[in-house]
UniProtKB/TrEMBL annotation:
Name of the featured protein: Thiamine biosynthesis protein ThiJ
Biological-process GO terms, alphabetical: methylglyoxal catabolic process to D-lactate via S-lactoyl-glutathione
Similarity field: Belongs to the peptidase C56 family. HSP31-like subfamily.
GO cellular component: cytoplasm
Molecular function in Gene Ontology: glyoxalase III activity
Keywords recorded for this protein, A-Z: Lyase, Stress response
Residue intervals of the DJ-1/PfpI domain: 29-226
CDD domains xrefs: GATase1_Hsp31_like
Classification via InterPro entries: Class_I_gatase-like, DJ-1/PfpI, Prot/Nucl_acid_deglycase
Pfam families cross-referenced by the UniProt entry: DJ-1_PfpI
Length: 230
């Protein structure tokens, strides 16, 4: 078995506290860089989302002034990978036993839907219990919040992890009006969140959990996961 599951958000809109709507989607590098690394290492990659909905591209991730000079390559790779895979699998229909690892990329979508998706929560709980490799990058760690038990206890409380920081959210211009900030929420719920310089690669491993702070951390996270799997 050499299959890895990438779980994407289905959200295209982030409602703000002032009543405005922010258009969101998947961040190209956070899908493309891990997919590229996994494919090169011989893994088969499947995609899933709530309802099997294909999320649109976050156009910010296609802007070289924001996402860097390689963003065009990442956009092309991500779009091709998603197109060739075809319709995304419905998250509720995924059997984690079919996979050796699960990955949660970002864009702001995970703070809209994945953080409270019960299907993802069940999948992550089963994956962690089986010792499977779990990766989450940038806003992807919001999806980890879905893994709570019947008493509301969070599965990943006490675990070390990285995620998009409050500072990076402010620098990006999306902190004001956000219903909540990811790094702060993770700490409030018991994560041992650490961080590096804004927008520089920063990765954390805690047993089978691999996390990255921002888009630049996507490829290093995938490489670390591959090392653990091989």
């Amino acid at each position: 078995m050499n299959k890895i599951l990438i779980v994407m958000s289905a959200a295209d809109t982030w409602e703000r506290t002032d009543g405005s709507s922010y258009a969101t989607g998947y961040w190209a590098e956070e899908v493309a860089a891990p997919h590229e690394k996994f494919a090169e290492a011989g893994f088969t990659v499947d995609f899933a989302s709530p309802g099997g909905v294909r999320q649109p591209l976050d156009r910010h991730s296609a802007d070289p002034e924001i996402a860097g000079p390689d963003c065009g390559r990442y956009v092309e790779h991500a779009e091709r990978a998603l197109r060739e895979f075809g319709p995304l699998r419905k998250l509720d229909e995924v059997d984690i036993d079919d996979y050796v690892a699960v990955v949660l990329p970002g864009g702001h979508g995970p703070v809209v839907d994945l953080h409270q998706d019960p299907g993802l929560g069940r999948l992550l709980t089963a994956a962690d219990a089986a010792g499977k490799v779990i990766g989450a990058v940038c806003h992807g760690p919001a999806g980890l919040l879905s893994a709570v038990d019947a008493e509301g206890k969070w599965l990943f409380a006490g675990r070390k992890m990285a995620a998009f920081t409050d500072e990076e959210e402010r620098l990006f211009g999306t902190a004001e009006g956000a219903p909540w900030l990811l790094a702060s929420r993770l700490r409030e719920l018991g994560a041992e969140h650490t961080s590096g310089p804004a927008y520089q690669p920063y990765n954390v491993r805690d047993r089978n959990l691999f996390t990255g702070q921002n888009p630049a951390s996507s490829a290093p996270m995938a490489e670390a996961m591959i090392d653990a799997l091989t």
